[in-house]
């Protein structure tokens, strides 16, 4: 088979494939689920999916605490599996176990202009936000190149992203085009598959984050969650039970939009605006919805808590499947550049 025929076959085999990943930084919360994982679970039903533990990416900002990164890996993967990712349908693997990614990253770094990296939308922003860390490293500057390697190594058509991540994907597409311009058409340009927006604020109204202490973790027990919900901020103008409220100004109502059926949402909205439903009642409804949502996740997670080796078996099997695909791309890249 000719080189062109091999490339065409590779692209055809990946024509309905998606790739995405997540940094292992600790237990996942509702924001992670509704912002990304829920979409991943749906995508694995309709296409070939590759989901990776981005442990090399975590090194860009956590290189001084590298040992802790691996401690987070099994817990994050347990959350993925509990949330519905199926290792029979999706390839679940560790970025750091696919050495071909490091080689592709090196090659792409040779052709990626520094000016492109410096204009990355979040580069200067994160330098300011994480000013307590020394991020003046090549690895931090070159993050988009490693991200591009993660994506195009598996030649996907789709990359699930939020609207705010589209500029990052566009940079990957530019690097992909640059490779193709230098060495001949090889990598298909990945397309954005926009993740439906889901508002999931923290318990205090800020962005949900473990560092803010305002999150509900996917593995958290109802005994722990209940006092958090009872203490949540609601409409600040509703000082008394008899005061009418405004669900659109309430920090609680976005959770109902995610977890409560449309008919009951309508009843809650009417009850809030007419003051026939109090905040205590509203929180009780939400607690029931959370319990119903989390129960199957906790049940699936319990299997892996009882036998931790199952998590490593999932990862080892996924690593091997990912490596098999990566080797094909590595061979084609070396042919293209004449190595």
- The Cα radius of gyration reads 22 Å
Helix content: 55-70%
User: Strand fraction band?
Assistant: 5-15%
Strand arrangement across the biggest beta sheet: 1-2-3
First and last CA, distance = 19 Å
Largest β sheet strand count, sense and barrel closure: 3 strands, parallel
Question: Summarize this, please?
Answer:
With 339 residues, the chain is mainly α. The protein is 57% helix and 7% strand.
Give the SSE map.
Elements (H helix, E strand, L loop, with lengths): L2 H11 L3 E6 L7 H14 L4 E6 L1 H8 L3 H18 L6 E5 L4 H13 L2 H5 L4 H7 L8 H4 L1 H10 L5 E4 L4 H18 L7 E4 L27 H9 L22 H7 L2 H13 L4 H28 L2 H29 L2
Textual characterization of the structure:
There is one protein chain. The protein has 339 residues and is mainly α. Helix content is 57%, strand content 7%. It has helices at 3-13, 30-43, 55-62, 66-83, 99-111, 114-118, 123-129, 138-141, 143-152, 166-183, 222-230, 253-259, 262-274, 279-306, 309-337; strands at residues 17-22, 48-53, 90-94, 158-161, 191-194. The chain has a 3-stranded parallel β-sheet. Strand 1 (17-22), helix 2 (30-43) and strand 2 form a beta-alpha-beta unit. Helix 4 packs across helix 14. The mean pLDDT is 91.
């Amino acid at each position: 088979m000719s080189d062109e025929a091999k490339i065409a076959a590779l692209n055809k085999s990946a024509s309905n494939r998606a790739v995405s990943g997540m940094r292992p930084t600790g237990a996942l919360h509702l924001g992670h689920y509704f912002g990304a994982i829920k979409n991943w679970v749906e995508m694995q039903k309709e296409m070939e999916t590759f989901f990776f533990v981005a442990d090399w990416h975590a090194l860009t900002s956590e290189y001084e605490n590298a040992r802790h990164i691996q401690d987070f890996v099994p817990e994050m993967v347990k959350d993925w599996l509990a949330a519905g990712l199926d290792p029979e349908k999706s390839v679940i693997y560790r970025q750091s176990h696919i050495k071909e990614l490091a080689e592709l990253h090196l090659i792409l770094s040779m052709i990626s202009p520094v000016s492109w990296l410096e204009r990355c939308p979040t580069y200067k922003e994160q330098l300011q936000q994480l000013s307590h860390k020394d991020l003046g490293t090549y690895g931090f500057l070159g993050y988009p190149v490693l991200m591009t390697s993660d994506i195009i190594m598996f030649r996907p058509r789709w990359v699930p992203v939020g609207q705010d991540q589209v500029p990052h994907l566009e940079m990957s597409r530019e690097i992909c085009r640059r490779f193709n311009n230098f060495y001949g058409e090889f990598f298909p340009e990945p397309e954005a598959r926009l993740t439906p927006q889901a508002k999931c604020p923290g318990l205090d109204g800020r962005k949900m984050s473990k560092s803010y202490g305002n999150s509900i973790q996917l593995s958290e027990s109802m005994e722990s969650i209940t006092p958090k919900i009872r203490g949540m901020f609601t409409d600040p103008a509703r000082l008394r039970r008899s005061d009418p409220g405004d669900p659109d100004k309430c920090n609680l109502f976005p959770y109902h939009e995610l977890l409560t059926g449309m008919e009951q949402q309508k009843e809650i909205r009417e009850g809030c605006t007419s003051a026939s439903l109090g905040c205590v009642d509203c929180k009780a409804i939400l607690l029931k919805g959370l319990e119903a949502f989390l129960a199957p996740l906790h049940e699936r997670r319990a299997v892996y808590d009882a036998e931790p080796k199952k998590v490593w078996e999932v990862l080892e099997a996924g690593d091997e499947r990912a490596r098999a695909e990566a080797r094909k791309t590595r061979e084609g890249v070396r042919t293209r550049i004449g190595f």
